[in-house]
From TrEMBL:
Source organism per UniProt: Actinoalloteichus caeruleus DSM 43889
Keywords: Chromophore, FAD, Flavoprotein
Name of the protein described by the UniProt record: Deoxyribodipyrimidine photo-lyase
Domain (Photolyase/cryptochrome alpha/beta): residue spans on this chain: 1-129
Pfam families registered for this protein in UniProt: DNA_photolyase (PF00875), FAD_binding_7 (PF03441)
Listed InterPro entries: Crypto/Photolyase_FAD-like_sf (IPR036134), Crypto/Photolyase_N_sf (IPR036155), Cryptochr/Photolyase_FAD-bd (IPR005101), Cryptochrome/DNA_photolyase_1 (IPR002081), DNA_photolyase_1_CS_C (IPR018394), DNA_photolyase_N (IPR006050), Rossmann-like_a/b/a_fold (IPR014729)
Family: Belongs to the DNA photolyase family.
Obligatory cofactor(s): FAD
The keyword Flavoprotein belongs to this UniProt entry's keyword annotation: yes
Stretch list, region Disordered: 182-202
Length: 451
């Protein structure tokens, strides 16, 4: 019989259970469906589409080397896959489990449509994450609401064996069709310094990282200017690299342990969203916030013109690279939600539009964590961007890189340019801060009833 591998966020040949399962059938049809709901919907992102097209080109080349190919179609994934299963008379369709409401709904619809025709959908549940969501849940609950106990279980649980890349793929006769170019699909501007997508690039990055960078991770992960993190997030988002493989290859040094802990956050947020799909856009834990509305402040935040250098540096890094350092994500998100007291959903939407690694589980659950409506056990803490800059950008190198208006300054002025006075700020075309940081923190605590 023939099997269809519906590839989604698992664009790799190494350790891919979906592809592996299909490859063991007589004939395998790997397919990727360009889905207009994702490409044209409310969370569309030129950066992710550009990165995705790189991934598809690279995957097709790899599959062709194995004697296979990648079929690319466009439309509703359920209709497309049901049509292909009929055309090739496939008995089974394999797909990776995923946690968003959209992905679970898609799998449900597909399973129903296939079973009506006597075909089976097999959902593989440790492709996108290391542990299946819910697998580690405490006895009386459907998920862990606090990270540390989750991580203790996660670290000790046994991961499945790795799937080597299939040796050969036997294809039924098919005409795969071309891969669209950026101009056909990308709707909007792509960040100028976007990384190149694909499994080849992801594996190269991973190998280099495990050889070297990871050993400095414990000391460098929060140092903004050192760029001491793996930059694997977009490759993990599209599944160019397998999280299970990473977890198995990581050793026991301090840096490796710290890195593994960070990788577990990804699984943690996925299991929260799997159990509470509504918390993608609703407060996971409501704090009865009455968020302010201020379009000008929101626009200044998006544009990196808040007058708070570390916040502006982060927002400008996001615009130019489609990626932002984790420490800067924490500071910019805290500034929006706690210093400006604007709704976390506005911030999450902007991040989702630009982040090449953007996904609902990691993005929205992290936003809620920062806003104090999520799983943070200290929901009312407010990060002070100036203190954060002193700690994590002590010589101002990160701000200097992204905020040329201040590039000739040194600390303390580079982090507190308002010390220079209004006239000097005007001369530099750099805005005064949108809020007094101390007053803003007081306003937030009062709003939360914690003054
Ligand atoms: P590394 O430090 O090298 O970490 C390794 C991997 O661990 C990352 O690639 C990522 O997959 C995972 N990871 C690390 N930290 C986290 C975390 N806090 N939550 C979940 N996974 C984590 N990450 C995304 O992948 N997609 C998002 O849309 C996203 N949005 C975020 C929004 C906010 C407001 C915040 C505070 C964080 C967000 N993160 C998101 C988490 C984190 O910032 C990024 O995963 C990280 O910066 C990616 O860079 P890296 O690959 O170099 O990370």
């Amino acid at each position: 019989p023939t099997a269809v591998a519906l590839l989604t966020r698992d664009l790799r040949v190494h350790d891919n259970p979906v592809l592996g399962a299909a490859a063991s059938a007589d004939h395998a049809v790997p397919v990727f469906v360009l889905d207009d709901v994702i490409l044209r919907g409310g969370h569309r992102s030129p950066n992710r589409v550009a990165f995705l097209l790189d991934c598809l080109r690279d995957l097709r080349r790899e599959l062709r080397e194995l004697g296979g190919d990648l079929l690319i179609t466009r439309g509703d994934p359920v209709r497309e896959v049901v049509g292909l299963a009929e055309r090739f008379d496939a008995a089974t369709v394999h797909v990776a489990a995923d946690v968003s409401a959209y992905a679970t709904g898609r799998a449900r619809r597909l399973s129903k449509a296939l079973s009506g025709a006597g075909r089976e959908l097999v959902v593989h549940d440790t492709v996108v994450t290391v542990a299946a969501p819910g697998e580690l849940a405490p006895q009386s609950r459907d998920h862990f609401a606090v990270f540390t106990p989750y991580f203790r279980h996660w670290r000790e649980h046994h991961t499945r064996g790795l799937h080597p890349a299939p040796k050969a793929l036997r294809l039924p006769p098919l005409r795969p069709g071309g891969i669209p170019g950026r101009a056909d699909l990308v709707d909007g501007d792509v960040s100028p310094s976007l990384p190149t997508g694909g499994e080849s690039e992801g594996r190269r990055l991973l190998d280099d990282w495990l050889d070297d960078g990871v050993h400095h991770y414990a000391s460098d992960q929060d140092r903004l200017a050192r760029d001491g993190t793996s930059r694997l997030s977009a490759y993990l988002h599209f599944g160019c690299v397998s999280p299970t493989e990473i977890a198995q290859r990581v050793g026991e040094s301090d840096g490796e342990r710290a890195f593994l802990r960070q990788l577990a956050w990804r699984d943690f947020h996925h299991q929260v969203l799997a159990a509470r799909p509504g918390s993608a856009w609703n407060d996971y834990r409501t704090r009865n916030d009455h968020w302010r509305t201020d379009h000008e402040e929101l626009a200044a935040w998006r544009d990196g013109r808040t007058g708070v250098p570390l916040v502006d540096a982060g927002m400008r890094q996001l615009a130019t690279e489609g990626w932002m350092h984790n420490r800067a994500r924490l500071v910019t998100a805290s500034f929006l939600t706690k210093s400006l007291y604007l709704d976390w959903r506005e911030g999450a939407r902007h991040f989702l539009r630009l982040l090449v690694d953007g996904d609902i589980a990691n993005n929205n659950m992290n936003w809620q964590w920062v806003a104090g409506t999520g799983t943070d056990t200290r929901p009312n803490r407010v990060l002070n961007p100036t203190r954060q800059a002193e700690r994590y950008d002590p010589d101002g190198a990160y701000v200097r890189r992204y905020v040329p208006e201040l590039a000739d300054l040194a600390p303390p002025e580079i982090h507190e340019p308002w010390r220079l006075g209004e006239e000097e700020l005007r001369r530099r075309d750099y805005p005064p801060p949108l809020v007094d940081l101390m007053d803003a923190a007081r306003r937030f605590r009062a709003a939360r009833g914690k003054d």
